[in-house]
């Protein structure tokens, strides 16, 4: 609730032309398909666009680089974020729980990203 109130206050200040930069919302997601066969990244582009239109800044990494630079960029964005929006699919939950039947670099990145966000923000700042 507090995180959403901060985000709403930032949107109001942005619309009012005040100097405070917009709040950052970190978007964490899986790069595959959801349970209905829809591309998660394509759906995330829509969410990203709508949040930006509402006056928020977002961190939405479509390419999900699983290297040191990608992890550093992700960690910095999580640290700066007011809240983390977790877009949960069955596959994302399985990956972050270490139960993905086809583990790969994206599975490891999903686990790292979600674990880092949980440790740094805590459950009150993660919105499913």
Explain what you see.
The chain has 5 helices and 4 strands; from the N terminus they run αβαβαβααβ. The chain is an alpha/beta fold and 128 residues long. It has a 4-stranded parallel beta sheet, with helices on both faces. Helix 3 runs parallel beside helix 5 (105-121). The longest helix has 17 residues, at 105-121. The model has no long low-confidence stretch (mean pLDDT 81).
Short note summarizing the structure:
The chain has about 130 residues and is α/β, with parallel strands linked by helices.
Any descriptors?
128 residues; alpha/beta; four-stranded parallel sheet; 5 helices; 51% helix; 11% strand
Architecture blueprint of SSEs:
Layout: H1 2-15, E1 24-28, H2 40-53, E2 57-59, H3 68-80, E3 83-86, H4 90-96, H5 105-121, E4 126-127
Parallel strand pairs: 1-2, 1-3, 3-4
Helix pairs in contact: 3-5
What share of the residues lie within helices?
Answer: 40-55%
Overall form: globular
Number of helices: 5
Content of β-strand: 5-15%
Q: Strand sequence of the main sheet, in spatial order? A: 2-1-3-4
* Tally of strands: 4
Structural class: alpha/beta
Distance between the termini: 13 Å
- Provide the residue-averaged pLDDT: 81
pLDDT < 50 stretches: none
Instruction: Summarize the biggest pleated sheet.
Output: 4 strands, parallel
Order of helices and strands: HEHEHEHHE
Rg on CA atoms, Å? 15 Å
